[in-house]
Specification:
Length: about 110
């Protein structure tokens, strides 16, 4: 479900998300499939380029998923906190980047 364009998603951690992970120009902002998160989607490559930001779940077995985190997926590949490519395996723990540790400057662009 599309929730609008940049800055119009209205989730509880909106300000922190926008400051740490701004939506790329021209991308759509939608609700994530999982509860409470948002997803930025590149309309030119919706299956290959997206960024998901989740509020976290304190009961998650993955320590990184206990708090807010980012999943950076560009050109069909996930990336870790240092911008290193992890391939297309979505279950690699390092692909969950704590929001507080996220650094936009080290992430690859399209």
């Amino acid at each position: 479900k599309e929730t609008g364009t940049t800055g119009e998603h209205g989730v509880s951690f909106n300000d922190k998300v926008q400051n740490k992970v701004p939506c790329p120009d021209g991308w759509k902002v939608v609700e994530s499939n999982k509860k409470g998160g948002i997803k930025y989607i590149d309309p030119a490559n919706p299956k290959g380029n997206n960024i998901r930001i989740m509020p976290g779940n304190p009961n998650s077995p993955n320590p990184v998923q206990k708090g807010p985190y980012v999943k950076w997926f560009i050109n069909g590949k996930f990336y870790d906190v240092h911008g290193n490519c992890l391939g297309n395996n979505n279950t690699i723990l390092e692909s969950h980047i704590p929001l507080d540790d996220f650094n936009l400057n080290v992430m690859p662009r399209k």
